[in-house]
Amino acid sequence: MKITKISPIQIACLLLMAVLSTSMLSAPAAIFSEAGRDMWISAIIAPVSGFILISTVVALHRLFPGRNLIQYSVTVLGAPAGKTIGLLFLLNALILNGNQTRQFIDFVSMNYFTRTPSIVFTASLTLLTALAIRSGVEVIARIARLLTPIIILIILIIILPLTYTINLERLLPVMEHGFIPIAQGTLALNIWYSMFVYLTFFLPHVESNKRMQRWGWISVTTVALCLFFTFVYTIGIMGSALGAFTYPFMVITRYTQAFEFLAHLDSLVMLFWVLDVFLRACLTYYCVVIGFAHFLGLKDHNPLIFPVGLLIMCFTYWSFPNTIVFASSAPLIAVSYNIFNFIYPLILLAAAKLRGFKAQSSD
Amino acid sequence: MNHPKTYIVVILLIAILMLLFDWRGLKDAKTKAAYLILYVPGVALAILLVINPNIPGPVQWMQPLFQPLAKMLFKS
């Protein structure tokens, strides 16, 4: 089979968009409940884990060129343990997929389409993503490269006119309750930064490890900047009232007025969110499909796309009867993401180093 | 649930269409087995979720394992 090559910049864009999509809207409220008004400090510390994760995944790819996490976890840990943890990793990825679809449909049906049954959005998003993945990894990467400037522009249009209304005194007092809430906020932000582990499924297609590492770091930095400014703007505008809203970013965009005649920019948020969730779904859905194909020992992943899509649609509804139950399960899911997406690759790298695998490419 | 039977019929119809669409692409026995490993649980789960949407899911299974850790690490 021909191996398609994609450029590091495209993957960096894809990862950036994937992480930004859900974090821009739901992170402010989630991190505010942990770190209070110091959450912007969490936003400065949290990217460290993103840098560590990118370096770990690239280092693992240097040890096992052309292979991904599911494949080399068997090589490093042996067949029984590697297969079991690989399956758990894939289940975690399925939960992540279900979660993001759930967030998407909850957001859309709460704010825009209040009467449409949510299955319409789940089915259309999954079907669209399935068709994108069927076209191959190159297509996904190119869509990401194409849409990233548009999405960044939308974010700037939404956020820049608000600069006059922020009041930085709302950020004071700094570190009112000490460092522990900030550390909790940082761990909670790791829900999003741990997503960079999915780089491992794209690395076999990328020409250069070194350039990928650099672009990965740029991607992490951009996410950190976007989150930092989102946090400063949301607290600066709303203060402690932030805790009362599920989507503070959505609320502040309703304030946005540019040049006194451009109002109702919340429709732009819809545009931003739909494009972004589509890219995120492309990334995570593709990773689950590739993961299952390697887990079951197939060379071609195309036949598995629709069954995995069906599973994702089931995971969207499974055991979440309403938004409140869904929101209360967030700490559990955060622990699960931290374990499988962040700690597991670190353990894998340590085990590979201890067992004496040598780097096979100097690049 | 208003009409569980209608929903089940719709799900079965979609499942059959999916199988018809994909089956020609499945060449060897290994691919067929892998396809069915994902397809059968998916359809079964979809039907189960229509009959009873509140069956405990993976997040509930995590609870005994991760709840102490989650309580220690996070406030909410």
TrEMBL record, chain A:
It comes from Paenibacillus terricola. NCBIfam families: 2A0309. It comes from the Bacteria. It is a multi-pass membrane protein. Belongs to the amino acid-polyamine-organocation (APC) superfamily. Spore germination protein (SGP) (TC 2.A.3.9) family. The keyword Hydrolase does not apply. It is found in: Membrane. The keyword Signal applies. Keywords: Germination, Membrane, Signal, Transmembrane, Transmembrane helix, Transport. This is Endospore germination permease. The chain crosses the membrane at residues 39-60, 72-96, 116-134, 146-166, 178-203, 215-248, 268-292, 304-320, 332-352. Coiled coil: none annotated. PANTHER family: SPORE GERMINATION PROTEIN A2.
From TrEMBL, chain B:
Keywords: Membrane, Transmembrane, Transmembrane helix. The chain crosses the membrane at residues 6-23, 35-55. It comes from the Bacteria. The keyword Membrane applies. This is Uncharacterized protein. It comes from Paenibacillus terricola.
